[in-house]
Amino acid sequence: MRAVFVLFDSLNRHDLGCYGGRLATPNFDRFAARAMTFDNHFVGSLPCMPARRDMHTGRMNFMHRSWGPLEPFDNSMPEILAQAGVHTHLLSDHFHYLEDGGATYHNRYSTWEIIRGQEYDCWGALAEPPLAEFRRQYSDKHYNNPKQKNRLQHQVNRHFIREEADFPGPQCFARAFDFLDNNRSADNWLLHLECFDPHEPFVAPQRFHDRFATDYDGPILDWPHYGRSDNTPEETAQIRANYAALMTMCDEYFGRLLDYFDEHDLWADTALIVSTDHGFLLSEHDLWGKNMTPWYDELARIPLMLHVPGVTQPGTRSRMVTQTPDLMPTLLELFGQPIPDEVRAPSILSRLGDEDGREVIFGIFGGPIGVADDRYRLIFYPPDLDDESLNEYTLMPTHLHSLFTPGELRDATLAPPLDFTKGVPLLRIPARVGAKRPPGPNREVFRSFSTMLFDIQADPTQATPIRDAAVEARLTAAILRELQAHDATPEFYRWMGLDPAATPASPPEVTA
């Protein structure tokens, strides 16, 4: 077996033509005609690295820990495959792999290569950046705040990216074709091609931006701050146009991969899987970004397309409910490997044709929990987002791009093993609101919402919450069931305002 797993970051389902989206994406549509397209695929743990931990381990982690590395006791799908004789290769420009909070993921592959220069990757080196030039080029709404060192680093990186071939995304595809040239006659390999695009900042070669002209006439607006929108209609149109340009670039380069499959007839013996880690709010619901907002479908319902020779039928669609952690056992099954006991997600391959009304949950450490089936969405909020009774359970105390501080670790205690830690005890570290983890201390947007229920059939844009006691009780019971399956801690139940012994007879208070 050979497989190519293409993972884009922030690939919005509602912008893909094959999902009825608002952009022309001829190559994603072309792949949908070759593949099985899943209409009810959802996130698991959020955002980027928690989602990747789900993909490695086949279980969710947001109820135990925030953004951080793989743990010493974690199962890792590419490592399991590599130990079974499958050559696994990671090719990515996702620079978070090189930071403290992602430092153990890429090393689980047989070989790996990281392309440099995305976003605020510590790559471009200018001791004296041209600040006056940057102030002229970039809008103060998104840039030029002296405290935002990450955005300055991005400006420096962009200073060194001059030709289309310099962009990290195109470089990823060029290296992917090198891998395929060197290995397409071999067997037993997995290529994980992971593209940071179309993640913000929304920058692409100029020829893509030229296709989406707007009435905006001002400095660069391409990196919206997460939270409430304060943009004029012209500014909003420009930011969306920049995202559309980047999406169009992703579509074109993905099409080159499809051309390669056509040219070398890889469809007959090579699986191709395409998905993402989460979506992105582009001013829908008057919000930008992720992490601090309710889990609307723009964030939580994501694309998944799957071609497996001899298994999936071209141009078919499935309504069965799937989610990010399912990819781990799916890839293990694809290569004929047993699924570890700690895995909680089912393989998609073993469920093809099973549209049994599954309910899934998803969320971020320290935020609300989302619940979805093929019709309803419940966004379940804890009583107090600022309650500091949560703990992080980890042996790898790192945040996104920093270590836990001595002040955080000073109150750590040793906790007994959880059911997935293989008998290993854990550090139990109080989760302070001000710690450097998503969603961070800026929770004003979170605080402005409460538990909401939506009927997607009647209200696909989730404009009007409803009340339905039976549905609320059923989906709340699904939360309890999944938390139990993932060995959530007693304080996590309390923090969420849930009783692990409760029956589904008492639904939460829901905003209507």
Descriptive notes:
The protein has helices spanning 26-32, 48-57, 77-83, 131-137, 149-159, 168-183, 206-209, 233-264, 297-300, 327-334, 406-409, 444-447, 469-485, 490-496; strands at 2-8, 36-42, 87-92, 111-114, 189-195, 227-228, 270-276, 281-282, 287-289, 304-307, 316-323, 360-363, 369-372, 376-380, 391-394, 413-415, 426-430, 452-455. The chain is an alpha/beta fold. The chain has 2 domains: 2-118 and 168-203 and 238-352, Alkaline Phosphatase, subunit A (3-Layer(aba) Sandwich), CATH 3.40.720.10; 362-496, no CATH class. The strands form 4 sheets. It has an 8-stranded mixed sheet with strand order 4-3-5-1-7-10-2-11, with helices on both faces. Strands 12-13-14-18 form a 4-stranded antiparallel sheet, covered by helices on one side.
Give a quick set of tags describing it.
globular, 17% strand, 512 residues, 14 helices, four-stranded antiparallel beta sheet, single chain, Alkaline Phosphatase, subunit A, alpha/beta
Question: Would you summarize the structure shown here?
Answer:
The chain is 27% helix and 17% strand. It has two domains: 2-118 and 168-203 and 238-352, Alkaline Phosphatase, subunit A; 362-496, no CATH class.
Helix content: 25-40%
Q: Quick check: average pLDDT?
A: 95
Strand order of the largest sheet: 4-3-5-1-7-10-2-11
Number of β-strand runs:
18
Q: Overall 3D geometry?
A: globular
Largest sheet entry? 8 strands, mixed
Give the strand content: 15-25%
Number of helices: 14
State the CATH superfamily name of the largest domain. Alkaline Phosphatase, subunit A
Distance between the termini: 50 Å
